[in-house]
């Protein structure tokens, strides 16, 4: 009789390749940067529809913070090291810098919308390679893309005219 049992030494957990690690690291720093820029905008937005935009920015900040945590924890699950240090984020993010000082609501809508779409571009840019190696992680990227695009639509609608 032949056995199909494996031995303890035959069993290994899935480990991310260097490419998968690099892709997730880029997503991580851009999500962290989006969180930080969203908070900067939240603190310094002024003008018409202030309260609505102020609250929408908090929703974005919460989503980006939770998303970065999900990505970092997924990296650790795959035996990759997550680097969310401020120096690393500042040196490697792909998002444009956020301007200082107070900004009016119309300008903040455009600035934040652009940064959300920049983050989505990062997610879409790594998606296919991530999916080829680890479809479970690609599912996380799908959820982040869906959520960010919805937030971009909601925020950008503040400036939409018909």
TrEMBL record:
GO terms for molecular function: ferric iron binding; oxidoreductase activity, acting on metal ions. PROSITE patterns: DPS_1. Residues 22-156 form the Ferritin/DPS domain. It comes from the Bacteria. Gene3D superfamilies: 1.20.1260.10. Belongs to the Dps family. This is Ferritin. It comes from Mycolicibacterium neoaurum VKM Ac-1815D.
């Amino acid at each position: 009789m032949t056995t199909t049992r494996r031995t303890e030494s035959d069993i290994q957990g899935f480990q991310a390749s260097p490419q998968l690690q690099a892709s997730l690291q880029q997503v991580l720093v851009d999500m962290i940067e989006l969180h930080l820029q969203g908070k900067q905008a939240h603190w310094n937005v002024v003008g018409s529809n202030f309260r609505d935009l102020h609250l929408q920015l908090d929703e974005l900040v919460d989503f980006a913070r939770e998303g970065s945590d999900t990505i970092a924890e997924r990296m650790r699950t795959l035996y990759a090291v997550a680097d969310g240090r401020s120096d690393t984020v500042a040196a490697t993010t792909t998002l444009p810098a956020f301007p200082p000082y107070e900004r009016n609501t119309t300008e903040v809508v455009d600035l934040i919308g652009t940064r959300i779409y920049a983050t989505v571009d990062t997610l879409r840019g790594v998606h296919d390679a991530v999916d080829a190696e680890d479809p479970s992680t690609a599912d996380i990227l799908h959820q982040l893309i869906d959520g960010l695009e919805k937030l971009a639509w909601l925020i950008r609608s503040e400036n939409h005219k018909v």
